[in-house]
Amino acid sequence: MNILLVEDNPADMRLVREAVAEHALDATLHWVSSGEAALNFLRRQGADHDAPVPDLVLLDLNLPGVHGHEVLQAIKSDPATLHIPVVVLSSSAEPSDVLRAYRSHGNAYVVKPDDFEQFIELVGSIQSYWFEAVRLPSQAQG
């Protein structure tokens, strides 16, 4: 399993990495720190020409350059990537951000907790749901 984390904050990236390790999920975490880098990864462009197709995208909204909402719209409007589940993982609890993400066909919207233990637990629950409870498109393809 491959997870693409789109997160510009190195501290949050480390928290997600720790949570993935703590929950012993058999997944590879790929990290990009901008919306443009996420699109290059997903489109397998430039240095990412051999990037794996992620099974799940964890997407921050407040990114430098290409905003997270734009990344989400690009993912869900491209036939090559629209099947990939996208979980918005944002510090914003603004109702307008939540509504916009769902209107752009985001699969889930999660607000990052401030507490370290809650953050680790949250990522663990995301992993449990997306990698244990549901069947992903990549699993259906073989």
How does this model look, in words?
The protein is an alpha/beta fold. Helices cover 45% and strands 16% of the residues. It has 6 helices and 5 strands; from the N terminus they run βαβαβαβαβαα. It has a 5-stranded parallel β-sheet, sandwiched between helices. α2 runs parallel beside α3. The longest helix has 18 residues. It is globular and about 35 Å long. The model has no long low-confidence stretch (mean pLDDT 91).
Task: Please provide a brief summary of the model.
This protein has 142 residues and is of the alpha/beta class.
Summary tags:
142 residues, alpha/beta, 5 strands, 45% helix, globular
Q: Report on the biggest sheet.
A: 5 strands, parallel
Report Rg: 14 Å
Encode the helix/strand succession as letters. EHEHEHEHEHH
Envelope shape: globular
Fraction of residues in β-strands: 15-25%
Q: Could you list the spans in which at least 5 consecutive residues all have pLDDT below 50?
A: none
Distance between the termini: 12 Å
Mean pLDDT level:
91
> Reading side by side through the largest sheet, how are the strands ordered?
2-1-3-4-5
How many β strands by DSSP? 5
User: What's the helix count?
Assistant: 6
Q: Structural class, please? A: alpha/beta
